[in-house]
Each structure stands twice: as structure tokens, then as C-alpha cells.
Amino acid sequence: MSDIQIIESVLEQATTRRRWQRAWRALWLGLLIGGLVWFAALGTYKLFPVPPALLPMAGLLMAIFMMAGFLAGWWQKATLPETARWLDSRQQLQERLSTALELEASGRSSEWRRLVTADAARHAGQVDARRLLPYGLPKASRWTLLVLALSAGLGFVPEYRSKAYLQKQREAEVIRDTGRALAGLTRRSLERRPPVLEPTRRTLEAVAELGDKLGKVQLTRNEALRNLASATERLKEQVKDLAQNPSFKSLERAARNPGTSGAASSAELQKQIAALQKSLANQPSDTGALDQFKKDLQKVKEAAAGLPNESSAGSEAARNELSKALADLARRAQEMGLTLPSLEEAIAALSASRIDQLLRDLDVAAVDLEKIKALAEALGKLQLQWEKIGKDLAEQLEKGQAEIAASRLYKMAEQLRSGNLPQEQAQKLMDEVSRAIDPASKYGKVAEYLKQGLKQMQQGQRTAAAQSLAEAAKELERLLQELGDCQALLASLSALQRAQMCIGNCQGWGQCQGPPRVGQGGKPGRGVGTWADDNDWMIPEITERWDNAGLERPDMAPRGLTDRGSGQLADNLAPTKLKGQMNPGGPMPSTTLKGVSIKGLSKVDFKEIATAAQSEAQSAISQEQVPRAYQGAVRDYFDDLKE
Amino acid sequence: METEEQIQAFRRTYTALRSEIGQVIVGHEPIVEGTLTALFAGGHVLLEGVPGLGKTLLVRALSQVLDLSFNRIQFTPDLMPADILGTNMVMETPGGRREFQYQRGPIFAHLILADEINRATPKTQSALLEAMQEHSVTAGGEIRKLAEPFFVFATQNPIDQEGTYPLPEAQLDRFFFKLLVTYPSGAELTEVLTRTTEGRRAEIKRVLDGAAMLEWQDLVRQVPVASHVKDYAVRLVLATHPKTNTAAPMANQYLRYGSSPRGGQALLLAGKVRALAQGRFNVSLDDVQAVVHPALRHRLIVNFEAEAEGVTTDQIIDQIVKDVPRDAAVAA
């Protein structure tokens, strides 16, 4: 190996090790910088309410710094002259290697070149690259480990968050949760029953989008409530428009009535009733009597189970008593028309002292009795349902059974189209249609179509009449669909109100049950101190409950306008008048109410509010909605308020 | 003779010279080494020191150890250029005719000791300019070459400035090295006293003649220098240039003028001599750094601020050496 080869070999080895060492050191340096970034990010996260996404980002940055450091170190490959100069410097070689390399590179042949190269090769032979460039942990690694250890320690320190921030977080979480629930509910409603009317579809989609917005976009509580209130108002307007249809009242009532909402016609129900009666044969259908019989049978069964041994005293008396009870039961079954053969067998088993057989027979009798009772109940329900269903078109329309009425109309149209309808039946149809015209007047164009159909039937134009009846049926179906839209809007409105309440009360969707609904007690009274539901006008259910016309309750005397004396109050209930002082710009007196609380500054003039409240109070007093004892206090209060 | 043998011979000669001079001069190794370095580089030396430190003795010892002609010129305020260079005089020929004949001055010797050079007027000092740079003298319309090798060793006294004339910058720049002769240490002083007051005087042997000196000077110039070593010398010189991009901060603050290219030449030539003297075949960064003070200190002209604050050129050079990285690539 020549002198220059020795030098180059040493330099190559040193270059490679130096490259690795540089990459290794740069990796640790990158890790140190990344660790510092991570530590700073963690510290910031622990002290300040920054988004938690900062931590994974800092972690990613640390990995990037580490990789970048390694790559940067690896990328810098030193040339041989550079390594030669570095080795000269590190090993105090007095520039022997670099000079030799340069002279060799110059290509000039001279005695000096030989001398310098030989001298350099001699010194290069003493260089041990492994000892000079050992692979070990660099200084940066100690600092890195310290930083990582501190970071790990800091990880156990709980985050400091102010109450205001936690509240804000909770609000944001509630808004997101509410938004997601609202969007989910509305979308499911849209998928389950796509709205017929375009405005309804658009409105529901807008509600779903609002839900998405709440679920995704970071909104403040006030912004969310403002958006919800705005959507609620729009929805209310739309529901108000739809609710103006007079047919909805009876349609909705019928829809709420169980058993009349399906499309099952009277004939179908009759078929089912006949089938059930056939199954029952001559068995009794009085469920009360069957219940009583079942209880007696149970008692006998218990007595049989507790029958003493034949050898024991009093056994004979117990058997006699049981035998009598069984005979009595058999007699009653016969009177009721019940066919229970196992009861007879039980009597035989008792007389043969086969107690086990007796018990088995009694069990079988109980099972048979249960079956008969179930059939009787089903029959009763069907009969009740059949009674509720209108027997003809007029009655169906009167009761709001639009689905059944439509089905009936289609059937009539089919009969008319068949062509072989006897004159007698055609007359019956005409009579039925003519009776239905009056109740159909509240179903939009249905009455017109029926009139048209009747006229056509009278003129013998059966096909045209069938067409008119079919149109009437379609009109009914359209009304039903609109009712469905209205109900979907109402459901969405309810969901919006629930969302408002959730966000207003800062409760999760599951915890919040929506606005308080009026229970069985009816509509709460309006007046001062009571929050009336201003949506009640659009909820037919409640409207229906108000409609107590003709209802007589002799058990409850009317109390509304009874004279309650001159309004003397107990001493402790006497109102105390306090002169308040209104400071302009000072805080308004406020009362925390359940429901939506809206924060912020009022934009309405105080006097305006006071005037409006006074007129409302006057109205409530004049309508006797304020107890007489309090009327004076209320009047004084609002007079003072205005001053 | 092979180069390697020449180099070995050079080392032997150098060592012998140091040894012979060491018989007369006690201590002052940097001064002796600087003087020898300048000799082998073919440069002139300015020795500065208070009286009695052996400046003149050193030069005299050199003249004895080198087999070269030696003249001493005592510079005084009334010394004229012709007193140094020589002049045309009317002489009578054997035929009875009278004609002008050039009478050589003391400059015509291999080794000149210009003692207390700053006592002469600038006009007289300037008489040395051509001789020092061109190794020739122009007198009576003729250029007369001086014998090679030619060295000027000047001494000056930093105290007793009354009636002295500071050397002009052009003159200073022609000196290869400026060596500052300092007080000896206690042990050295004891040795000096012993040698000069007891026993007989030391006999100095001649070690080198003029022809050999010229050979060694040629050898010195052949020593290879790596490019980054040259670059270091260049960066050192450039760092002394105030108000330039390459200037060191201290140079900007305290220097009026920086080193001329002769400073860079001095750095490399001196570095070569040092490398050979240490038995190496190439110049190292250490070699350059070791000679930076004697090579540059007289080439830097300080400004008023430096004079007012008492900042010396040596302090400025120290800072420049710190500021300039030895190897830019390795430092990166």
C-alpha cells in the first residue's frame, strides 16, 4: 500500500465515522430541541387553556426535529481534504495530511511531494479513527434526558384551568353534543319520512345544517342560542302557516286515537272479529267473569296442593271441602258456558285420591282458562276498535279517519269502474257520498270532488264519478301528508326547544328533557308570575284538551268567578311596598328562570319595557287573572315602576 | 545533495547557529530565533529595546558566527546619506590626473548593523530604502549591486525619544521582523553577570558562509504550503485592514492602516523557516501563528484612540488571532 493510499484509507475511515457521529449528535440535538419544544408546549398546556391538539403537534414536531437532525447530520458528508484538515487539527499533525493530500492532488512530481507524503503517511498510521471518534452518547443526550424526565414529571401535574374556562369548555361541549343530537334527530326524521312539501324539506334540512354547525363550528353560548332562536322562529312561522288548515284538528285527533289510525277498514275488522268469535265458539267473552273464575280456580289449586295425607286427622274433611269447591266450580263453568274438560277429570282424580293427577288437571284447566281469556280480550279490543271506526264515509270523515275514508273512496271508485254495479248499490253509494259532503267541507277540495262525483253518478257517468272519488281520496291523502309534515316540523321545533334548553341550562342532550310540557291537568293559567307556553296554539293535542265544551262535571263546582271576599290577607302575606332607586346604567334586577337565559345587554328602552309590562298587568287584572288580594299590589308595583 | 539531506543539514546548521550564539547571548530565545528566521528568509530585522539588553551584542555575535562581512553604522542626527551609501571623491590617478572616484560607504557589507537608527533624520534613514529592498545602491548616477546575502539589523531605543525621528512607514515595512528585546529573567541576568565578569570571553566559531546562506534561503522557499495555510495568512493580513469587510472588530476600532502584502510574505517565509527548523516538510497553521507578532507588529499603524488608550499593536494582533479562525472549513 502506497503512502497516499495509507493516508486516504485513514481519511475514508475517519470520514465515515465522522459522518455517523455527526448524524448521531445531530439526532440528539434535534431530540433536545424537540424535547424543549415539547416541554414548552406541555408547560403552556398545563398553565394556559390552549387546545389539547397542541401536544400531539409538539410531539410530532419533536419527531420531525429528531429526524431532521439525523438527516442533516448524515447529509453533510465531509470530503477527504476536509477530513484531513480536521484530523490535522484534532491530532496536532501540523497540517501534514492536508498538505500531502493537496500535493498529491496537484499531480506535480517532486522530491518535496514524496517527503511530505511519506511524513504524512507515517503520522496517519498512528491515527486510530475508532479511538478518535468513539460512538457514545453526546453531551446533548444528558440535557435531552433531563428535559424528557422533566416533561414526564410535568405530565403528572394537573392542568390549571379557571372556572370560567371550564364553564366555557362545558358550554362548548354541550353545544357540540346538542348540535350533533339535533342534526341526527332531524336527519333520521327526514330519512324515515321525507317531507312532501318543499318548504318543509328545506326547513328541516336547515335545522339539520344548524345542528351540524353547532356540532362542528366553535360557537359561543350566545351565538348558539341566537341561531337556535332564529331557527325556532322560522319554524314557528311555518308551522303556524300549516296549522291554519282546519282539517288538521280532526285529522290529528283521529291520528291520536288508537285503533283508528290504520288503514284497516270496517269490513276487515269485522272479518277479524268473526274469526275470533269462531275460535271462542260458545265460550264466554266476559273477561271480568273469567278473571273471577280464574281466581277461584287458583284458590282450589292452592287448597289441593296443601291437602293433608289420608292418614292424618282432618284429611277427610279437607277432601270433602275441596270436592265441594270443585263441584261448585264445575257448576259455575257450566252456567257460564265454559268448556273445561280437565275440571271434570280433576274431580274424578280427587275422588280416586290421585292428588298428583288432580294438580295436573287443575294446571291444564288454568291454562285453558287463560287462553279463553286472551281470546276474549282480543275480541273485546277489536269490537271496541270496530265501534270507533266510522261505519260509512260520512262518519269516517266526521271522525277524521282520513286514511280509512280514502280507502273507502278508492273502493267506491273501483266499484263504479267495474261497470256491473247494480242500481240498488249505486243508489246506496250515492246516498253515502251525499251524506259525506257536509263533513267533507273541512277537508279542502274533498267536498267539491264528492259533489262532483255525486252529480256525475246522478247523471250516470260512473267512470267520471269514479275519477272524482279517486281525486277526493288523493286530496285526503295529500292532507294526511301535510299533517305528517306539520308533525315533523313540530317534532323538529320540539327538538330545537330542547336544544335551546340544553344550551341554556348547560346540560347534555340526554340530561335535558326539553321544555316542560303541559300535563294532564290542562293548560296552566296565564297571568303574572306564570310562564305560559306560547306555542300551545300550534299543538293540537293541547288545543283538544281545552275543548271542554258541553262537558259537565257535577262533582266539581266551577270556581273561576266565585266571590272570595274583600281580599283580606294574612299579616305575613301582606305585600310590603319598598321604594326602590333606579340608577341609570346600573344593573337591571333579574330573576333566574328555568329555561332559556339570555345574557347580554338589553337594547330596548327601560320605559318601553315598563309600559309594556304595565299594560300587560292591567290586562291580567281586568281579566281577573290576578287574585283580588294581589291586584292592588300589582297595580301599585307597576305604577311605581313607570315613575 | 538530496532534499532530505539538505533539510537535515539545514536543521544541523540552524542548531549550530543557535548554539554558537547562545554562548554569547543568554536567554532571549525568541529574539535569537526571530533573528535566525529572518536571516534564512532573507529579511531585515528591527530590534527594539531599552539600552543594555544585548541588541548590538546579538548582531555582533551573528556577524562572528556567519562568515560574512560586517559593518556597523552608528546613526546620529548629523549622519548624512552619503555617509552610509558612499560618495564620489576627487582622486589623483597615477598619471597625475584628477578624477571622480566612487568611494563605497559602510552599506557595502553583507551584514549591516544600523545602531539606533531612529536617531538619524528621515532623509538619512531613507537612504536605506533602496538598499534594503533592491539590494543595490544608486550613487553618482550608477546602480551598484550590494553583495549577497545582504542583511540590515537595525536597533532602536523606545525611551529617550528626544531628538529622535520615528522611522517612516515605508522604512518599517521593509523590515522582515520587528523584535522586541525585553528584560532578562533573574536566572538569565545571573548568567549574564557570570559570563561577563568572570573567566575569559567566549570564542565563537564561524558556522556559515554567504554561499551556504544563499542555498538555505533557496531551500526555504521550496517548502510547500497548503492552500488553507496560505488562506489563513491572507485572512490574518486582511483582518488588519480597517474599514473593510474582512477587518477584525479591533482593527476597525484601533487601526489607521493595516499590514501591507509584505506582512503576508513575512508570515509564510518565516513559517517555512520554522517548519524546517523543526524538521517538518510543510508549513503548519501553528508556524504562521507563531510568527504573526514579529511579522506584523511594525506594519500596523494605530490611530489616536489606540494611542490614547495605550493599546499596542501586539494587543491588537492577539485579538485578531483570536477572531480569525485557523481553518474556516474545520471551524464550520
Q: Count the strands of chain B?
A: 13
Based on CA atoms alone, the radius of gyration of chain A comes out at 47 Å
Distance between the termini of chain B: 43 Å
Question: Poorly predicted ranges of chain B (pLDDT <50, ≥5 residues)?
Answer: none
**Stretches with pLDDT under 50, minimum 5 residues of chain A:** 518-532, 537-545
Main sheet record of chain A:
none
Provide the β-strand percentage band of chain B. Answer: 15-25%
Outline type of chain A: elongated
Helix content of chain B: 40-55%
* H and E string of chain B: HHEHEEHEEEHHEEEHEHEHHHEHHHEHHH
- The outline of chain B comes out as globular
The total count of helices of chain A amounts to: 24
| Overall number of strands of chain A | 0
Key words describing this protein structure:
heterodimer; A: 643 residues; mainly alpha; Four Helix Bundle (Hemerythrin (Met), subunit A); B: 332 residues; alpha/beta; five-stranded parallel sheet; two-stranded parallel sheet; 17 helices; 48% helix; 17% strand; globular
Describe this structure in words.
The complex is a heterodimer of chains A (643) and B (332). Chain A is an all-alpha fold and 643 residues long. Among the domains of chain A are: 3-155, no CATH class; 265-306 and 318-388, Four Helix Bundle (Hemerythrin (Met), subunit A) (Up-down Bundle); 566-642, no CATH class. Chain A contains 24 helices and no strands. Chain A has helices at residues 3-47, 54-75, 80-91, 96-106, 111-124, 129-132, 139-155, 163-192, 198-216, 221-243, 247-256, 266-280, 287-305, 315-336, 341-351, 355-388, 393-398, 402-418, 423-437, 446-458, 462-505, 540-546, 606-622, 628-642. In chain A, helix 13 (287-305) packs antiparallel against helix 14 (315-336) and helix 19 (423-437) runs antiparallel to helix 20 (446-458). Chain A is elongated, with a radius of gyration of 47 Å. The model of chain A is unreliable at 518-532 and 537-545 (pLDDT under 50). Chain B is an alpha/beta fold and 332 residues long. Chain B has helices at 3-24, 29-41, 55-65, 81-85, 122-125, 127-134, 169-173, 186-197, 210-222, 227-239, 249-254, 261-277, 285-290, 292-296, 304-309, 313-323, 328-331, and strands at 44-48, 66-67, 70-74, 86-92, 98-104, 111-115, 136-139, 142-145, 151-156, 175-180, 208-209, 255-257, 301-302. In chain B, strands 3-6-9-1-10 form a five-stranded parallel sheet. In chain B, strands 2-11 form a two-stranded parallel ribbon. In chain B, a hairpin with a 5-residue loop joins strand 4 and strand 5 (98-104). In chain B, helix 1 (3-24) packs across helix 3 and helix 2 (29-41) packs across helix 12. The longest helix of chain B has 22 residues, at 3-24. Chain A binds chain B through residues 82, 85-86, 88-89, 94-96, 98-100, 102-103, 111-113, 115-116, 119, and chain B through 2-4, 7, 222-229, 275, 280-287, 326-327, 329-330.
